[in-house]
Amino acid sequence: MFSCQIQHRFTMNLNDLQNGLWCKRCDVLLKEAQIYARTHHGELMNTHYEEFLSFLCVNQHIWKIHNKSYIIESEIFIDVK
User: What SS3 state is found at 31?
Assistant: First the structure.
């Protein structure tokens, strides 16, 4: 049994581990955060899902938010046109 930085517990076979794969749940959450950022004209700065996520908005502002806040909040990006 393995445990990632976010404390997700999972099993993994040796082949996946040797190929650099890790927590599949974190991979899915990272992809969801990237999509969320893009749909709000921003960008997720993280390359791995972590406790704190760094976002870049359309105005080039960068800020960090706790991953649980990102999941709970329905809107963290504001489109300024």
Answer: helix
* Pick from 29, 23, 26, 27: nearest CA to 10: 23
70 residue type, one letter: Y
Which parts of the chain are beta strand (E)? 2-3, 9-10, 43-44, 52-56, 62-66
Per the prediction, the chain carries an average pLDDT of 83
- The model's pLDDT over 5-19, given as tens digits with 9 standing for 90+, comes to 888 998 988 898 888
Distances in whole angstroms, Cα of residue 21 to Cα of each of 2, 4, 28: 12, 12, 12
